[in-house]
Design goal:
The chain is α+β, with helices and mostly antiparallel strands. 55% of the residues lie in helices and 17% in strands. The protein has a five-stranded antiparallel β-sheet with strand order 2-1-5-4-3, sandwiched between helices. Helix 2 packs antiparallel against helix 3. About 2% of the residues have low confidence.
Length: 495
């Protein structure tokens, strides 16, 4: 059933329109209560009319029941006064009245059809037991009412066998009165209500159509603005205030524009930085080569020195290109992780062992602290990349005889890696920029420190691929601490 409805929606595209759905919803919200109210009012009128008719007829019949006893009609049904009353009520309510005695024999029929016959029915028997009854025939539009004919024994008529106050049931009055007048009035009321309903429906159609257009107008406005960007026009923020939901959409759109502008500026700056970083080693190599060519009788030691410098510049160029390739691979939306069970403690020890020669050369001590054994679902290569870049960065910026402490810990959801150094620290203005590509905190000593300025962006991208976070705390003159937090369980399924 659900699939059929979905197929209908996809087949008729206009059914998927928010404006159409809003129009239908508003129309139903107004029309359904209107229909329910019309039926409720008409049904209530009919029930009330039947109750009033029944109450009036019952009162009249009770009066006649007293007259039947008074004029001894049950023994002598020839009383003209009683017969006149019976015929009058029968004509007044367009009905039929039967007087039935205690032996179930009909002694009076206003239609004069079954006088003298015996009538046996459940309603009549209940009436002879002193219980009145009422029934409404919806099909034939008739109200059937039964009233017992009760005589209360007076003091003059009392005997030892029948004391005063005893109620004696002599028979019942069975009346069938028409409700056609009520039904006619009901139909007139229904026709008028239908006319009013049609007029209101027309108003509802107009109001729902206008409201649907007005409610979706801001969405159309935003859609047109996005289409202008798609068509190559200048992206301008939307300055409009409608209602809370559309204000949220407009604000999100404006944030998107600002984000696009930032990305565009970042891309231009990145291209400029890449060009500069790639051009610098080439320029250095060119200057060195031209210097050698300009000296015809240069000593061998000078050739060796210049060639070592050229080799160093080539190595630097190679590192920049490799880091750029790593960054581009992780920037791709379809970048995939090779998820497996990784022993974070063992992996950290391996990375530290590999970096200790570099640390010794800079007189930096590497310390590993493991709070607990950590097994996580992660990409081992990219976790290794995170550790390598962050630890190598800490080594480079540590002061002489510095210490880099690597701490591994975990809770029930995440594992954390903290890399703390005793370097010069990073000022507040630079902390927000250290993950920018090619950014260096101390540009004056960038050549002495080495690196490409891409290590931290590569580490950040690898952390984000794992749905993790990386935070920086730094105090100038005391040192810097990087905290990486990654979920123990990956969203990707294990192979």
């Amino acid at each position: 059933m659900r699939r059929t409805i979905r197929n209908v929606f996809f087949r008729f595209r206009w059914l998927r329109s928010l404006r159409v759905r809003l129009f239908v919803a508003l129309l139903l919200i107004g029309f359904i209560p209107l229909v329910i109210m019309r039926h409720a009012i008409i049904a209530s009128y009919e029930d009330r009319g039947i109750d009033v008719r029944r109450f009036d007829v019952q009162n009249q019949l009770k009066i006649i029941a007293d007259h039947l006893i008074k004029y001894n009609y049950m023994l002598d049904p020839s009383s003209e006064i009683v017969n006149a009353e019976l015929n009058q009520i029968s004509n007044l309510y367009d009905g039929r009245i039967l007087i039935i005695n205690g032996t179930l024999r009909v002694i009076k029929d206003t239609y004069m059809l079954i006088e003298g016959r015996t009538v046996i029915s459940e309603e009549v028997i209940r009436g002879l037991r002193g219980t009145g009854d009422f029934r409404y025939d919806h099909v034939n539009r008739f109200i059937d009412i039964i009233v017992p004919i009760v005589e209360t024994v007076s003091a003059q008529s009392a005997t030892p066998e029948i004391p005063e106050g005893t109620e004696i049931i002599h028979g019942v009055i069975l009346a069938s009165v028409s409700s056609e007048a009520i039904n006619t009035t009901r139909e007139i009321l229904a026709n008028k209500a239908q006319t009013v309903e049609t007029i209101i429906l027309i108003f509802l159609l107009v109001i729902a159509a206008v409201a649907a257009i007005l409610f979706t107008l801001p969405i159309s406005y935003v859609s047109n603005a996005i289409s202008r960007i798609r068509d190559g026009f200048a992206a301008e923020p939307i300055r409009a205030s409608y209602y809370m939901e559309t204000e949220h959409i407009i604000e999100t759109y404006n944030q998107l524009l600002r984000r696009i502008a930032v990305i565009d500026d970042s891309r231009n700056e990145f291209v400029s930085n890449v060009s500069h970083e790639l051009k610098t080693p080439i320029t250095s190599m060119k200057v060195l080569a031209e210097s050698l060519l300009s000296q015809r009788d240069a000593p061998q030691e000078l050739y060796r020195e210049f060639l070592l410098d050229i080799a160093a510049e080539i190595d630097r160029e190679d590192r920049i290109i490799n880091d750029l390739l790593s960054l581009v691979k992780m920037d791709k939306a379809e970048a995939q992780l090779s998820i497996g069970i990784v022993d974070i403690n063992t992996l950290t020890e391996v990375v530290l062992k590999r970096l200790r020669p570099i640390a010794r050369k800079r007189n930096v001590e590497l310390v590993f602290e493991s709070k607990r054994e950590v097994l996580a679902e992660a990409d081992e290569v990219k976790i290794s990349l995170i550790l390598t870049n962050l630890i190598e960065n800490a080594i480079k910026y540590s002061r002489g005889s510095g210490v880099v402490t690597v701490t591994v810990n975990a809770d029930h959801q995440f594992f954390t890696i903290e890399i703390a150094d005793t370097g010069e620290g990073i000022d507040e203005d630079s902390i927000e920029l250290i993950f920018e590509r090619f950014y260096r905190v101390d540009k004056s000593h960038s050549r002495e420190i080495g690196g490409t300025g891409l290590g931290l962006p590569i580490a950040q991208n690898a952390v984000l691929l794992h749905n993790g976070t990386i935070n920086v705390d730094s105090v100038v003159g005391e040192g810097t601490k990087f905290t990486v937090m990654i979920p123990l369980r990956s969203r990707q399924k294990l192979p």
